[in-house]
């Protein structure tokens, strides 16, 4: 029988945080780590941390090139991570045919479970309840509304659309098919009954090639947007002991029936009203949210994957699995919750997790990295473990609040608002949580606090200017031989400007226009210990410049506030014309549904934009007439680009 000692080198056929995650465990087991990468990832941390890295000309879906890279580097095994080729049975079979160890279940199991329809059939055969569904996209009468259109070969929310009216079905199916083909190379979709008030529960399973099979408890992944998980936890918030036992046994029964080995999850939907549970799918790979299971069980799932792949038995049974405390994971995304969670791009000019509280950061980025549209916008998974659920939630929220983060719009404040929401803390975490409770999409600082932070930013800036001075750098800021006007800096947050005029006093303090007093206790290039109106804070600060002017990203009072330094003299620039429909993110134009001269109504879809393999409908903001179309089908557009121009209809009673 082989053992992990026979695995001396591993190639990870993936990128970002999951590549780093696998490398971390593989290195601890004494393995040589090989990465593959594309041009967009040439400077990514996972590439520089690998012992070797092979450039891919054809991308992460080029299985033939990945296998060639494994052979040329002498890799014993290939770990697929998640996404890309992780659930591609053909790739798994090709890896094994090349004499390389595949870290995952057999190609046959991947094939049967990767097809959501075949997985449902296996669940039925195992006696596990399933939701009404049909592989006929026109069989809505058979399934019943509301309906989810889902990709047969997909996951991660791609190719998934909720339909509540028969007249919307055809377009939802067409959109899902395009997204499925783009993401998975398979445009098959099916219909499934949608349960509005439900909980998404998944059971982590782990099996070996010797008949050993256990489950490692459940995870609840009900907090979702766009049918994608953003907060996961273990154990589930409100699952009863009876439900836990029955679902765990159902998962093992299904896994035994298909001869499962390696890690995987059996996913269920629990009806909040009736308590019934229904099989959803089997994920034949490591899940994004696997760290919460590791935190409560103490079992390294990547290590177990590698042991099983090398032929080792688990060496323990179900009764040997213990559970300790509660773990919660939040997915930190580059996206704008206030704009419907649209993906965001930019450069991470500030990226510094706080030292305390101690939480787990699984991330694929570092300060200075550019976030583009080539891949999923997840920046990090942040995981907190505590003796109780409330402690884990509080620890996670505080870690997010104290992180210094700037340059890219993220969902950080939304995650904090969710974790601190009384409904979340009470366990009211059904899949419609965001719709029902609408957590704040941004920071909610008071006017007073924002003003204090603006003063702190001005105090840091005066110290920065003095430290950068080439002459007279030891003279106090603002010193004059005669009485002169106060120093002034204008700092803007969005459309709100803060005029900070200040004078340096003999005792080193500063008086600020409006009756404020500031005392700088300690200044450094990236921190400031400052007291404003008797309130003392240590804030973290990054100064970054871009074409729109200098920005100060200041972390304090539970969030990062980005101040734009308003220049004294501005150079006029181009502006979007009145009535211009602009791109909310970089992307590719898939379809244009309006022409010059068309009369349109508010909410009507003008064009389809593809970004990160998801389709986004750009709609008319008001009734009017199209006067310009500035893009073409297939063309790439940048964030903020004018797509078309609509002349609004005149409103009665408001003319001359």
State the main characteristics.
single chain; 656 residues; alpha+beta; Rossmann fold; Dna Ligase, domain 1; D-amino Acid Aminotransferase, Chain A, domain 1; 5 domains; eight-stranded antiparallel beta sheet; eight-stranded antiparallel beta barrel; 16 helices; 25% helix; globular
Total domains: 5
Low-confidence runs of at least 5 consecutive residues: 652-656
Q: How does the major sheet shape up?
A: 8 strands, antiparallel
How would the global form be characterised?
globular
How would you summarize what this structure contains?
By secondary structure, the protein is of the alpha+beta class. The relative contact order is 0.08.
What features would you describe in this structure?
- This protein is α+β, with helices and mostly antiparallel strands.
- The protein has 16 helices and 39 strands.
- The strands form nine sheets. It has an eight-stranded antiparallel beta sheet with strand order 14-13-10-11-12-15-22-20, sandwiched between helices. An eight-stranded antiparallel beta barrel has the order 24-25-26-27-28-29-30-31.
- Helix 4 (89-97) packs antiparallel against helix 5 and helix 12 (389-402) runs antiparallel to helix 13 (412-419).
Question: Any chance you could write out the topology, listing elements then pairs?
Answer:
Blueprint: E1 9-12, H1 16-28, E2 32-37, H2 45-49, E3 52-55, H3 63-72, E4 77-79, H4 89-97, E5 101-102, H5 107-114, H6 116-125, E6 133-134, H7 140-143, E7 147-151, E8 161-163, H8 169-184, E9 189-193, E10 198-207, E11 213-225, E12 228-234, H9 241-258, E13 262-271, E14 277-283, H10 290-297, H11 301-309, E15 326-333, E16 335-336, E17 342-343, E18 346-347, E19 350-352, E20 360-363, E21 370-371, E22 378-386, H12 389-402, E23 404-406, H13 412-419, H14 422-425, H15 433-437, H16 447-467, E24 487-493, E25 496-504, E26 510-512, E27 516-524, E28 527-532, E29 535-546, E30 549-556, E31 559-565, E32 580-582, E33 587-592, E34 599-600, E35 605-611, E36 614-619, E37 624-629, E38 636-637, E39 642-648
Parallel strand pairs: 1-2, 1-4, 2-3, 4-5
Antiparallel strand pairs: 6-9, 7-8, 7-9, 10-11, 10-13, 11-12, 12-15, 13-14, 15-22, 16-17, 18-21, 19-23, 20-22, 24-25, 24-31, 25-26, 26-27, 27-28, 28-29, 29-30, 30-31, 32-39, 33-35, 33-38, 34-37, 35-36, 37-39
Helix pairs in contact: 4-5, 12-13
